[in-house]
Amino acid sequence: MRRRIRTVATAPTRAFTPGALATLLYAVVVFPLALVGFVLTLVGLLVGGALSVTTLGLWVLAATVRGALALGAVQRALARGLLGLTIEEPVAHTGRGVLGRRRALLAGRAGWRAVGCALGTPFTSALGHAAVLGTYVYGVLFTLHPLLQRWNHHTVRDSDGTTHHVSLEVAGVQLDSWPRWLIPVAAGLVLLAAAPWLLRQALVPHRMLLAATLGPSAADRRIRTLEDTRAQAVDDAVATLRRIERDLHDGTQARLVGLAMHLTMIRELIGAGADRAQLLTVVDTAQGNAKQAIADLRHLVKGIHPPVLDQGLDTALATLAADSALPVEVVTDIGARPAPAVESIAYFCAAELLANATKHSGASGATVTVTARDGLLRLDVRDDGRGGATVGAGSGLTGLLNRIRTVDGTLTCDSPSGGPTVVTVELPCRVDPAGAGGAATERE
């Protein structure tokens, strides 16, 4: 009972927490800002449209679009600082020279979407402004009614000529005396208690409008993603070439140099008539260097493209499961063989996810499920470990996501605390009707 009373007593004070006050400040500031932006944008469009037959009209329209973009930047900053709503900046397209910049402003989608935002925000922000008046303003007035009635009143003259003060009257009933003034006080406390929730709900249309018009469009976001993945692919290729060069220089090349030296030594020993035992010792050392060089080359080639993938993804995953430290069940249902690049990405994703499960999850087993149908390859790796895996937390998932994005794939991770962890990778792939397919289940 005490906890319930304490909760009821503190509910109205939640309207004055830092987060609630930040939302209140946003609703108060954004409405007049939206009105000013609406008037300026509308006037600019009308004047620019009327003068569009002349060069001056194009400059007015360009200035209007530029002003809408600046207003959008202010709106994004306010939403980020007061609401915690982060909206990406739209992709900016600039031209060369003054005429080029004007052409870019008038032809760019981001500018006209900002214009639409400037024309629409007064209507959406008005809801938040009305919520402030209906909750905070009237909530405070009703709550402080017993104190404010001394100053906030009007004089009423009765039929007999006497006068009296009336502060609050509803349906002919005056609420200025005890205990009637408890009614507005209770109503004010209820309004203040509900104010943060009501204000957030009133601002939902405004938030949706900002997110839809001030951020990058779907096409721009797609272009940005492709640019990022292309840059990541180039960086990965450079890193791979450097790793191969380092491995060849530090490993295979050194062993081949040693092999050449031992062959030279064998030739000199044969010319000098060395005994059989000394000659066999040098031959054994040279043979060991040759075997190790071959092993290094095989390991290097396997890191680039596992030879087992030539037999198909299902066979490669079965081999991977056999080499895993965990008991792994592999289930494949591949209708037609995917492209080699997709097979390679799926294989390395499975290898990394199984390695993560072995090192970090404490799992006792894992399941790898692969399906390829209708142009989509889906890889699910599930383990019964402790869970808690997240993308970007040092678990290697970030690297996998970058690799997957190079072919426009997606990665999702469902890993609640306590497990299980399920990582799903989806890769688009071309389906060859002539390809062989089948289903297989392997238990290791």
From TrEMBL:
Pfam family, one: HATPase_c
Parts of the chain that traverse the membrane: 21-50, 56-74, 111-138, 181-199
InterPro entries, alphabetized: HATPase_C_sf (IPR036890), HATPase_dom (IPR003594), Put_sensor_dom (IPR025828), Sensor_HK_TwoCompSys (IPR050482), Sig_transdc_His_kin_sub3_dim/P (IPR011712)
Single annotated GO MF: protein dimerization activity
Enzyme Commission code(s) on record: 2.7.13.3
Coiled coil: none
SUPFAM superfamilies linked: ATPase domain of HSP90 chaperone/DNA topoisomerase II/histidine kinase
Catalyses which reaction(s): ATP + protein L-histidine = ADP + protein N-phospho-L-histidine
SMART domains: HATPase_c
Gene3D superfamilies: 1.20.5.1930, Histidine kinase-like ATPase, C-terminal domain
Domain Histidine kinase/HSP90-like ATPase per the UniProt entry, residue ranges: 341-431
Keywords for this protein: ATP-binding, Kinase, Membrane, Nucleotide-binding, Phosphoprotein, Transferase, Transmembrane, Transmembrane helix, Two-component regulatory system
Highest rank taxon of the organism: Bacteria
Gene Ontology CC terms, in alphabetical order: membrane
Principal EC category: transferase
Protein name (record): histidine kinase
Organism of this sequence: Streptomyces montanus
